[in-house]
Amino acid sequence: MKQLFEPLKINSMVCRNRFLRSATWEALSDDQGHITNKQKKIYTELAKNEVGLICTGYARILEEEQPNERMMGIYNDSFIPEYQALTKSVHKYGAKIMMQLAYGGTKTTYQTNSRRIFAPGDIAEKSTGTVGIPMTKEDIHYVTEAYVQAALRVKESGFDAVQIHGGHSYLLNQFLSPYYNNRSDEYGGSITNRIRIIREIYTGIRQAAGEDFPILIKITCSDFFEGGLTFKEVLPICRELEDMGFDAIEVSGNIHGKANSMSGQIFDGYPLTRGGYFIEYAKVIAEEVNIPVLVTGGVSHFDKTLDWLQNSRIAGFGFCRALLTEPNLIKRWKDGDMTPARCLHCSKCRTREGNYCTVFHKGSF
Ligand SMILES: Cc1cc2nc3c(=O)[nH]c(=O)nc-3n(C[C@H](O)[C@H](O)[C@H](O)COP(=O)(O)O)c2cc1C
Ligand code: SF4
């Protein structure tokens, strides 16, 4: 029987357990994306508190592209020394750490007037109304190369793995989505075409970073809106991701803010589940592919999570907000206090001073 507190191997990386801190933008970096002492403290605390694999918040791969304020950067070599110090500090406490790379695109209202924002086509992003510049093939190669160079810096910085952000309506999700991708060239149309940019990014990173460097991807299991990417299409997409060589897939959705109220609703034949929104989708994906599948979103109960681990092929579980409320959640469970996570999943964790749990940590981190 699989256990939550037993190691999880992803390519050459062995995590001490099956608990992932899923990517969390803390909004605590400086304006250039350099990390602050507050962030170092957060990551070291998570490592001390038994998280198996810590994913950073999304990091900018290009200086001029930034979907949100005070996110991390990895767009030139000046970042390497500070991340070397960060990864060293996390490794001291037995955790693994990976960096998430993102090109945001049009899911942003941040400084949209002063930036060139690329998109697959000319469709306004649903939640922001932002319209991007449809990418030429040259633009696609430019962004692809930025991913590759950023991933090399990730490796050089001592991170154990890199994660490509392929979800949450950011650029790569938009390429996959028939709603946003209205291209008629080899980057639009069929699934093979819509996934091409991810294939090129993956291939570039693999060739540069070597066979044993773990490359993960986070995806949305559905766009959860009319005309968007459906779960039916996500299944062949996951098979293609495995064929390319991705080492693991993290299954997410773009609706975590509203997922509690949508619980029980059925999309593509599967329900959203309170306490693990995308579990039913991840179970099916994990049957389809032979690489580790992790799932993130609303996970709160140790017993339920153990049951899902033991009665499906899901390999691991991600937590974002629960670890903002209780950075010691995983250690607490390991020490035998199995009370569910205290987080209410109310999504009141964004403030001008940084993203933290405003319900249980009023005014502090
Ligand atoms: C404050 C905050 C920051 C987040 N930052 C990121 C991010 O940088 N990259 C990402 O893929 N997801 C990000 N997410 C989404 C989470 O990783 C996760 O998918 C989502 O919150 C659902 O998981 P949870 O219910 O455990 O919070 C963020 C969520 C929150 C609340
Ligand atoms: S503000 Fe709400 S969702 Fe965010 S960490 Fe606190 S309890 Fe959880």
From TrEMBL:
Q: List where the protein spans the membrane.
A: none
> Lyase: is it a keyword of this entry?
no
What keywords does the record list, in alphabetical order?
Flavoprotein, Oxidoreductase
Q: Which CDD domains match?
A: OYE_like_FMN_family (cd02803)
User: EC number(s) for this protein?
Assistant: 1.6.99.1
Q: Boundaries of each NADH:flavin oxidoreductase/NADH oxidase N-terminal domain copy? A: 3-336
Gene Ontology terms, MF aspect: FMN binding; NADPH dehydrogenase activity
Q: Which domain of life is it from?
A: Bacteria
| Protein name per the record | NADPH dehydrogenase
The upper taxonomy is: Bacteria, Bacillati, Bacillota, Clostridia, Lachnospirales
- From the UniProt record, report the name of the gene that encodes this protein: namA
